[in-house]
Design a protein that fits this description.
There is one protein chain. The strands form 2 sheets. Strands 1, 2, 5, 6, 7, 8, 9, 10 and 11 form a 9-stranded mixed sheet that branches. A two-stranded antiparallel sheet has the order 3-4. By secondary structure, it is α/β, with parallel strands linked by helices. It starts with 7 loop residues before the first strand and ends in a 9-residue tail after the last helix.
Length: 344
């Protein structure tokens, strides 16, 4: 299986044709020797995640993206008036296999490059499912099973735009339908350091307002996008509350240990010391049990990316998004206090 070191996790959001943004971020991370042990992908993030698990790096993945065009991903559904989707994803199935994006023999073997998690939403009940090529470290509802093309296509099945995908006995839609950027699967897989890549500005910035929707597609897309962003913000708030709880547990452990030390000295009249190798006041035996995770590093654009690029795949668009992802990663890396190579 992939390396047993599960420290670093990369969480890749959905965004369709904007997925070249992920690759620009990946290039920056690789240049700074930050290589993920775990990749969690939703929608186009599942495609890029499966490519990484297949052995691709930023450079080989970028070579695939440079050639990717709209007709390689979708075609018009000629029965759209009688069926519940506008575009057919049969070309995407073809492209992923023919062009060497994914290698499921490798993903499901000891040669897999990372612990891969992909998400999809069950149509009948709206429940988010997580599928993975390795077991989780912590108890979870993740389905550990051999991953295949249907898992990836299911994660990409945007409601109304694309058809639902049959997987096992159920139909699935895009994982982003209920959770565009899930942190939980990364933590369940064992992550201690998380980089999240989303393709929507997530912090308030009055200088970069979104464009006013000008047609039905852009209106629906923008509404969905803000709803998905809210799900990520809720996920992040829960993550921070859990961290607060862990810190309280650590402090409580420190107080209990100090109390035990005093009682032992009184009872036996002997020196009794709990080891504290790093000198932070928390005995090592307790610190190893409770550990708060650092906040995720969140890479996101400063201004909205046009929603039309969700279903449009062009070389010009890819170039712009690839460079944007690289520059946003650099800006975020610097803001997090990390060293950017080449800068004084």
């Amino acid at each position: 299986m992939p390396t047993e070191n599960r420290k670093k996790a990369l969480v890749l959001s959905g965004g369709g044709g904007r997925g070249a943004y992920h690759v620009g971020v990946l290039r920056f991370l690789e240049e700074h020797e930050w290589l993920p042990d775990i990749v969690v992908g939703t929608s186009i993030g599942a495609v890029n995640g499966a490519a990484i698990a297949s052995g691709h790096n930023a450079y080989s993945l970028w070579s695939l993206w440079k050639r990717l065009r709209t007709q390689d991903v979708q075609k018009a559904n000629l029965n759209a008036l009688t069926e519940n989707f506008l575009l057919d994803t049969a070309p995407l199935r073809d492209t992923l296999q023919r062009e060497g994006w994914v290698n499921f023999d490798r993903i499901n073997s000891d040669e897999a490059k990372v612990h891969l998690r992909v998400t999809a939403t069950e149509v009948s009940n709206g429940r988010l499912h997580v599928f993975g090529n390795t077991p989780d470290v912590y108890p979870s509802r993740m389905r550990y099973e051999p991953l295949g093309l249907d898992h990836i296509i299911a994660s990409c099945s945007i409601p109304i735009v694309y058809p639902a995908t049959q997987l096992h006995e159920n139909l699935y839609w895009d994982g982003a339908t209920v959770a565009n950027t899930p942190l939980g699967p990364a933590i369940d897989a064992g992550a201690e350091e998380i980089v999240v890549v989303i393709m929507t500005p997530w912090e308030d910035d009055e200088d970069t307002p979104a464009d006013t929707p000008h047609n039905m597609f852009s209106t629906v897309s923008m509404t969905l996008e803000w709803a998905l962003l809210a799900s990520f913000q809720a996920d992040l708030k829960l993550f921070r509350r859990i961290n607060d709880l862990v810190r309280l547990e650590v402090e409580n452990a420190r107080l209990r240990a100090t109390n035990a030390l005093l009682i032992e000295k009184i009872k036996e009249g002997q020196e009794f010391i709990l080891t504290d190798a790093d000198g932070d006041g928390i005995p090592d035996i307790f610190q190893n049990k409770f550990q708060a995770l650092p906040d995720p590093i969140i890479v996101a654009p400063k201004k909205p990316i046009p929603v039309e690029q969700i279903v449009r795949y062009t070389r010009k668009g890819h170039d712009e998004l690839y460079e944007m992802g690289y520059q946003d990663a650099k800006r975020t890396w610097r803001a997090s206090g990390k060293l950017v190579e080449g800068e004084a």
